[in-house]
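INTERNAL TRANSFER SHEET
From: sequence group
To: structure group
Subject: Hydrolase

Please process the attached sequence and return the structure record in the designated field. Keep the field labels unchanged so the import script can parse them.
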Amino acid sequence: MRMILIGLLLILITPVTSAEFSRTYIDQHPLQVANVNGVDIGYRLIGESDKPKVVIIMGLGASNVVSGDNLVRGIEQAGYQLVLFDNRDTGASTRFDDWGQPLVWWQLLKLKLGLGVSAPYTLGDMSADTVALMDWLNIEDAHIIGFSMGGMIAQKMAVHHPERTKSLTLVMTTTGAKHLPPPTEEAAKLLANLASGEATQERATAFRERGFYTESMPRQMMAIFKDGDRSEAVRTIMNDTLVVHGQDDILIPPAHGVYTAEIIENSELVIFPGMGHNVPDLVLPEFLTRVIGHFSVAEMASGSR
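Return from structure group:
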């Protein structure tokens, strides 16, 4: 049971940013708050207002700054306006601290026994937050990029709101299919080492500096557990989809990306050597080329319909 928990934690807590992480440019843009779908959502707009929109959905416990300056500026300079936002329970968005922290081992046992998992909200709620924020901003449709847990939320959005999804980019994420491989033993040991002694406080401090809210992670894990296997729903996605995965991802092994691309009809799979559960500096230029090219193809396709 402990190894399952370690693996599930590792899947989603590793930053998508590189060692050269900078958020200075992002922080220059004012953080605003929208009251939508019954919660406050913190967000930023970066880029000219008349440009096509790109909405980035971040992963477990990750606030809007985690994407980092280099990725954001690369997309903006290609001619897009970005919407960066905090998922519920992170950053400037409504927090659920009063709900408390779940007893994770107990919820995992309930999951194994086929019983209901307790969660303060669902991935569906988080997908609805995204759509409601777009409504607030008068955005008809957008290119949607989801990282890790954000990719799961993006899947839900494409399933239930395909008309709002101009294109879909799923980065280092999964459908939750039970037959797919778990994290490696190496990944599990990494978390075990980090979770001991003073390393815990050092890790928590480093995470907050990068824009992660570790206290929200157990609650968001419950939302993931509650959602289960999305494969049958994901099969119905017809949006132009780019699936990006790291060849060296020991947290969500590349088989997860391969399977996702297999079951989405209009999809392309890119697996980057030298990429794990992050987007390192060496990979970022080609990553941006692929993603921005994907946007252009989707726009041309929608214009011809």
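Handover comment: The CA atoms of residues 232 and 263 lie 9 Å apart. Confidence is low (pLDDT under 50) at residues 1-19, 191-199.
Transfer complete.
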